[in-house]
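Need a sequence for this fold. Nothing fancy.
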């Protein structure tokens, strides 16, 4: 009985000793340290564990990033002619898109093409660049498709805007460029698409935005469900 008493006390003391030795500043004893201390690889770092020693990988061939659509027209005269004849703006002509397009146009295009699209941007006036056409140039007869095509690939002295702008942004700029062309030609202003006729989820980037919004919306209305079926089609 006495020895049991001593054992118990001894055990308690031992337990106390173990617990009290723990330094609260340090992590506790780690059983499977791998899980506590993962190896963090720097993006673009060089590590032997990777196939070519490089952390950053190219996307798997044939995969398409979310919100991105491949552009079907090739960067050659035939592709240009096809886009010019057949490609149309998938975004509805709304005030929102036009306002957005104007802002982007002012950032990316106006330095050369001018605020009015007459080819008299500041760089042209300072003679830093030559041969910038006006959007009402009869010989060029630009269309929604051709405007998008040159933004995507660039044309001669004009660079591509594919990396600076998203698909949607390019189409917004496109609407604005066509509205500038109308103004230059003295055509009546194009009417905006009515709110109720605006089709949602026109582009994958948009569809995604709606999808995420709906997912987070607890009180989602039946209207949202329609939206989602549209996307899956
Ligand atoms: C650095 C100056 C510069 C900027 C910035 C610029 N462009 Fe251009 N753009 C040109 C030049 C130069 C041409 C004439 C190219 C040629 O055909 O030789 C041109 C031609 C065009 C054409 C006529 C293409 C055709 O059908 O022949 C369109 C449309 C156009 N640009 C749209 C845009 C849009 C939209 C932006 C902004 C996203 C933009 N440009 C930005 C210099 C520029």
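Here you go.
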């Amino acid at each position: 009985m006495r020895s049991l008493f001593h054992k118990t006390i001894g055990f308690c003391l031992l337990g106390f000793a173990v617990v009290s030795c723990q330094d609260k500043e340090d992590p506790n004893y780690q059983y499977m340290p791998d899980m506590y201390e993962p190896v963090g690889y720097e993006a673009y770092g060089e590590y032997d564990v990777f196939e070519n020693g490089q952390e950053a990988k190219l996307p798997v061939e044939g995969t398409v990033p979310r919100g991105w659509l491949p552009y079907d027209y090739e960067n050659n005269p035939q592709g240009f002619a096809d886009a010019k004849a057949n490609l149309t703006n998938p975004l509805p002509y709304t005030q929102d898109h036009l306002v957005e397009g104007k802002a982007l146009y002012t950032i990316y295009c106006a330095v050369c093409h001018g605020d009015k699209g007459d080819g008299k941007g500041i760089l042209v006036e300072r003679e830093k660049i030559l041969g910038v056409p006006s959007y009402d140039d009869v010989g060029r007869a630009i269309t929604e498709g051709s405007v998008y095509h040159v933004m995507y690939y660039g044309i001669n002295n004009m660079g591509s805007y594919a990396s600076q702008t998203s698909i949607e942004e390019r189409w917004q700029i496109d609407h604005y460029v066509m509205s500038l062309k109308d103004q230059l030609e003295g055509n009546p202003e194009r009417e905006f698409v009515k709110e109720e006729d605006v089709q949602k989820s026109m582009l994958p980037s948009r569809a995604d935005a709606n999808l995420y919004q709906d997912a987070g919306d607890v009180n989602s209305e039946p209207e949202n469900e329609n939206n989602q079926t549209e996307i899956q089609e």
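For context: Residues 84-192 form a domain with the Cytochrome Bc1 Complex; Chain D, domain 2 fold (CATH 1.10.760.10).
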